[in-house]
Design a protein that fits this description.
By secondary structure, the chain is α/β, with parallel strands linked by helices. Helices cover 49% and strands 14% of the residues. The chain has two domains: 72 residues, Orthogonal Bundle (Arc Repressor Mutant, subunit A), CATH 1.10.10.10; 96 residues, Rhodanese-like domain (Oxidized Rhodanese, domain 1), CATH 3.40.250.
Length: 221
């Protein structure tokens, strides 16, 4: 009898749990549920979501084992599951704080440099793209880029950037972007490119803000 266990299965399980947690509305609901048992209508009121959205996110959280339910008459009450959820959320908060600290340091360092790492807003970027003469540089991983990116963007992950500078046009302005406002990849990319003589800015809010605004994105097969 062969052992069907795959050493990659725990990583797949971790990825699935991360996917379930990877929506800020679900984290908002978890934050409220962590304070005590609540019915759906209270969670709707506390989160500001619709009943349908709240129910959908709660089902995802329940599927991942993050919350549990019990009936009280006609009401369904949601509470936190007994697993180590508090430790997981604390770890996420600590990592967010860590990233915020890196960004604060990057901004402090940039203020002390002759050339500051200038940002560009989503609206200004849309206008500049219409005018042309600008290259969008996505410094996220190839997998993230394939799932969705700004139209016309070039993907060079940050780890590969220094070795692939020749692929970037030296006669055009560059705009580097990554996941969101607290993603340090675009900050590091802009600093590297500036040091190499490129004219570069970074998209202040990143891909998640662009997508949330309902603007067009492209995917790669």
């Amino acid at each position: 009898m062969t052992d069907s266990f795959s050493p990659q299965q725990p990583l797949a399980d971790m990825a699935e749990l991360a996917r379930i947690l990877g929506h800020h509305h679900r984290l908002i609901l978890l934050q409220h549920i962590a304070r005590g048992e609540l019915p759906v209508e209270r969670l709707v009121e506390a989160s500001g979501l619709s009943v349908a959205n709240t129910s959908q996110h709660l089902q995802q959280l329940r599927r991942g084992g993050f919350v549990q339910t019990r009936r009280d008459g006609k009401r369904v009450l949601y509470s936190r599951s007994p697993g180590p959820l508090a430790g997981l959320l604390d770890a996420l908060r600590q990592y967010v704080d860590y990233n915020h600290g890196l960004i604060r340091q990057l901004l402090t360092d940039s203020e002390q440099q002759p050339v500051r790492l200038e940002g560009i807003s989503r609206e200004e970027l849309r206008q500049r793209l219409q005018e042309g003469g600008m290259t969008l540089l996505d410094v996220r991983s190839a997998e993230e880029f394939a799932q969705g990116h700004l139209p016309g963007a070039v993907n060079i992950p940050l780890d590969d950037l220094e070795q692939r500078l020749a692929e970037l046009p030296a006669d055009q302005d560059l705009v580097a972007y990554c996941r969101g406002p607290y993603c340090v990849l675009s900050h590091n990319a802009a600093a590297l490119l500036r040091a190499k003589g490129f004219k570069v800015r970074r998209l202040e809010q990143g891909f998640t803000d662009w997508q949330a605004a309902g603007l067009g994105v492209e995917t790669s097969e």
